[in-house]
Amino acid sequence: MAIEVRIPTILRTYTSGEKAVEGSGATIDELFKDLETRHAGIRERLVDEAAGGELRRFVNVYLNDEDVRFLAGISTELTDGDSVTILPAVAGGTA
Predict the structure, then answer these.
(1) pTM of this prediction?
(2) Domain containing 21: what range?
(3) Is residue 95 over pLDDT 70?
(4) Is 13 helix (H, G, I), strand (E, B) or coil?
């Protein structure tokens, strides 16, 4: 099962500069575990093991443009050909 994963600039050091990589897995969690086998250290930046293995607070993950937090979170199921986008949360503005 091939899943395209779009990588934000800040995490491309883990993917040798690649903007997108392929992975596999039946869920977001399995996909991130699969990515870790080829891109060591990336899972730690996405998943907070101390919080029960949930997505880190300031990481947004989209499955085919749907925020996985409004689906099943890290347990969201995947199918062949899906597209996963990882985006760091951005804060800021003027006071």
Answers:
(1) 0.92
(2) 3-88
(3) no
(4) helix
